[in-house]
Every structure is written in structure tokens, then in C-alpha cells.
Automatic annotation (TrEMBL):
Pfam families membership: HTH_1, LysR_substrate
Keyword check for DNA-binding: yes
Name used for this protein in its record: LysR family transcriptional regulator
Keywords: DNA-binding, Transcription, Transcription regulation
Organism whose genome encodes this protein: Pseudooceanicola pacificus
Length: 316
């Protein structure tokens, strides 16, 4: 015997309120309509749903059993309504964010943390990648947005790029590096020390080659490569190695890692960090909230980083 879900809901309302009239008011239907439903159910079951002569109405065992299922349907309906409201308001849902590793580790993961203080009901799935991979995943709707640098290599026509930070690279090393004690750093000095190479496929790797070419260095000793941002920092702190890093990434960890900037002028990439999204895509409210949170955070951060950059006395 199949019993319609709406009939179970109506029965549950009558059982909980002890009155057909009050149940009708709650559900927004007529009292005769509920009475007919209850009468039809009793005929089909061959048993009464309520004990005769009791006021308020008191369910029989079968009436209470069926009402239990009606309550479950009502609760599922309430939860579905609440879930829809949360999704539409942006207070729940999942946001998928990808980006270049160093910036994701230096800034975005921390910003996701501060975002969750305000929006604990939103799940964020973070992943890594460089521009070609990120664009493919955006176009296939595997990502809501991506954080990456753009410059000489432009985004695909279907992409929309929002700049959040101008690009600037620096030569980085540990705080007590011997080169800090030299008044003027020469090309020869850079060759005398080992180097850390950026991740394969990273724009920083091309930047490193451009820097070496500009200062007239054809060969360096690479002792470590392919590490995450934390592994690069850890390696630099224990050695006299040098590497190229975005100035903003060094700035982000200035208080937690003993990494400093060598005041050497190097060629700067025509590139800026930004957020990549597909044009005319319908962002979920949750994704738009995280996008706004990240862009707002970088607006304040950009000025502070610029002041730190200007405080460095750059050499020749």
C-alpha cells in the first residue's frame, strides 16, 4: 500500500496539534480537506488513526507510527528550505579556489582562515596550479576562481582578470647572510653562493633566467629545486643559498621566518597578481563573498607592501 507523503504530513500536523482545525490553519488548507484525507486513510488501513471520543485527538499506535514518518518529511522539507535559503544568501555552499603555490601559501590560505571567522558555513576547497592548468579548470567549471600572475602571457579570451597586487621580484636569503655585510654586491658575489630554483613551470623560473642574463651570469650552482614555499624558506634559513621570490611573499612572512631581501636591482617582470574568472559566469553567492573578501584584503595589503618596498635602499 502506497501512502502519499502529503497525507502523512497532514496526519502529523493533526497528531501534534491535537486538532484538525488547527492543523488546517498551520498547513494553509481547508479543514474538510484534512478530514477527508484522514477518513480515506482509515478506510484503506481498516483501522482508526485516533482513539474515539478523545479531545484533544489522541492517535492510536498506527496513527502515531504514520505521524512519525510525516514529521520526518516535514523536517526534511524544512531543512531543504533552509539549505536553499543559505545557498542563496551565500552563508553555505562550497567554493573551489586554485592558484600558484607560493601566493596560495603566503596569502590566500590565511585569507580563507579570516573568511571562515565571518562565514563558517562555507566550505573552501583549495588547490594548486599554474596558468595553463588553472584556465582549463576554470573553463570546465572545476574552479570558481583562480589566483595567479599575468603579464606577457595573456589570459584566454574567455577569462576576466582582476588585478590585486602589482608584481615585483627580489633576491632573497637568510637574515644573517654574508652578503649583507658587503657594501656593494657584485655579479661575482651572486655566483659565489648556491641557489634555490623555483618550481618547474613557475613564472619565477623564467624570471630567474632573465635576472641572470641581465647581470651577465651564465652559470649558477643550483643546490635545491622544486620545493614548496615553506621548504624553500626552511632551506634558506639553514644555508647561504640565494633565490628569487616575489617581494610580497617575503613580506608576508617577515615576522615568522628569518628571510631578508638583498638590496640588488634586478629586472622586474611586466606582470601583476590577480584573480582569474570566466567571463559572464554566474558566480554562486558564496564564491562572490570569498572573491570580495580576497580583493578587499589585498587593497589594504598593497599599500603596506609598497611602504616596505620603498624602505629598502636598492643597490646598483
Amino acid at each position: 500500500m502506497k501512502i502519499e507523503e502529503r497525507h502523512l504530513v497532514q496526519l502529523a500536523a493533526v497528531v501534534d496539534l491535537g486538532s484538525v482545525t488547527r492543523a488546517a490553519e498551520l498547513l494553509g488548507i481547508s479543514q474538510p480537506a484534512i478530514s477527508r484525507v484522514l477518513s480515506t486513510l482509515e478506510k484503506r488501513l481498516g483501522e482508526p488513526l485516533f482513539e474515539p471520543g478523545r479531545r484533544p485527538l489522541r492517535p492510536t499506535l498506527i496513527g502515531e507510527t504514520l505521524a512519525l514518518h510525516g514529521r520526518q518529511i516535514l523536517e526534511a522539507s524544512r531543512q531543504a528550505t533552509e539549505a536553499l535559503r543559505s545557498l542563496r544568501s551565500g552563508s553555505s555552499g562550497t567554493v573551489k579556489v586554485g592558484g600558484v603555490p607560493f601566493f596560495m601559501d603566503a596569502y590566500i590560505s590565511r585569507m580563507i582562515g579570516t573568511f571562515h571567522v565571518q562565514e563558517p558555513g562555507i566550505r573552501v576547497d583549495q588547490s594548486y596550479g599554474n596558468l595553463p592548468d588553472l584556465q582549463k579548470r576554470l573553463l570546465s567549471h572545476q574552479l570558481d576562481f583562480a589566483v595567479c600572475p599575468l603579464g606577457l602571457v595573456e589570459a584566454a579570451p574567455e577569462m576576466e582578470f582582476t588585478e590585486i597586487l602589482p608584481g615585483r621580484n627580489v633576491l632573497a636569503c637568510r637574515g644573517g647572510h654574508p652578503l649583507h655585510r658587503r657594501g656593494r654586491i657584485s655579479t661575482r658575489d651572486l655566483v659565489d653562493f648556491p641557489w634555490v630554483a623555483p618550481l618547474p613551470g613557475s613564472p619565477l623560473l623564467a624570471d630567474l633566467h632573465a635576472i641572470l642574463l641581465a647581470v651577465g651570469v651564465t652559470d649558477i650552482s643550483v643546490r635545491f629545486s622544486g620545493g614548496s614555499l615553506m621548504s624553500v624558506y626552511n632551506y634558506l634559513e639553514e644555508t647561504d643559498a640565494l633565490t628569487v621570490l616575489p617581494h610580497s611573499v617575503v613580506f608576508a612572512h617577515r615576522k615568522t621566518h628569518n628571510i631578508s631581501v638583498l638590496p640588488v636591482k634586478i629586472p622586474q617582470p611586466a606582470r601583476s597578481l590577480g584573480i582569474l574568472r570566466t567571463k559572464n559566469s554566474q558566480q554562486t553567492p558564496a564564491a562572490q563573498k570569498l572573491f570580495d573578501h580576497v580583493t578587499h584584503g589585498f587593497r589594504h595589503l598593497s599599500t603596506t607592501i609598497k611602504r616596505h618596498e620603498n624602505a629598502i635602499v636598492w643597490g646598483n
